[in-house]
Amino acid sequence: MQSHVVPEQQVQRLQSRVAALEQLLEVHERTVLEQSDKLARTLRQLEERAAALAERTEELARSNRELQEFAHAASHDLQEPLRAVSGFCQLLRDRYSGKLDVQADEFIGFAVDGAHRMQKLINDLLAYSRVGAQGDASEPTDSSAIFDQAVTNLHAAIQESGAKVTQTGLPIVTADPSQLIQLLQNLIGNAIKFRGERTPEIHVEASRKVDDWLFSVRDNGIGIEPRHAERVFLIFQRLHAQTKFPGTGVGLAICKKIVERHGGRIWIEPRSEDGTVVLFTIPTKDGDQS
């Protein structure tokens, strides 16, 4: 039987290879451990951030609820004393108008007018607070019928201004019907109010995009400067004197709140020389129809 002897050089080469593999394995294991530690730290940081974000979201939601409750309660509680003030001011004017001097009549007029404007402000603040607190459930809603109802509600303003209000392509969407009426009524009413010398022309239309319906309300009124395009959606923000265009500055804030409650967004494309286009979206849902 013949024996085979492994040369010494071959043994050394094998030992070197084994040592190199052991070293490579050690480096690999160390790298894996380092990467595992880094991944674990990253996961912990992400979990901490997610927890902080959830806590912050809950704080904001709670703050928003408390603010709505406060606005509703404050507005409601102000109604009774304001009615008393308004009633006595009206009584003063009815009984003593023309019996005192001209300045006294003027002061009484200021008081009556201030009480009326305060009543309108409180009513609008209540309407704003109710958007989130007392909204109805969304359901398939014919926005063409909603448009017709909004136009009917604005009959007096349309007749007085001679406005031409039209629509095309309004679909069935998933929305709160009463709030959609309020939304279109506010936008069309604004277009009538902020008119120029020309007869108001307001057109409402909608088109389907990938994930939502895009509505537009286009008018030929006095327009809005681009620098005010975001400001007009803030509550109590007004761009014009009360004597020129009466109002409280709450209407567009209500519109924004309604659209956001439905998961959409609203913005303005100013056309300072030829009116304004207000656009808003409502997400598409199963059952929506064009």
UniProtKB/TrEMBL annotation:
EC number: 2.7.13.3
GO molecular function, one term: phosphorelay sensor kinase activity
Known catalytic reactions: ATP + protein L-histidine = ADP + protein N-phospho-L-histidine
Record PANTHER family: PAC DOMAIN-CONTAINING PROTEIN, PHYTOCHROME-LIKE PROTEIN CPH1
Residue ranges of the TM segments: none
Species this chain originates from: uncultured bacterium FLS18
Cross-referenced InterPro entries: HATPase_C_sf, HATPase_dom, His_kinase_dom, HisK_dim/P_dom, HisK_dim/P_sf, Sensor_kinase/Photoreceptor, Sig_transdc_His_kin-like_C
Record protein name field: histidine kinase
Coiled-coil ranges from the UniProt annotation: 11-63
Keywords noted in UniProt: Coiled coil, Kinase, Phosphoprotein, Transferase
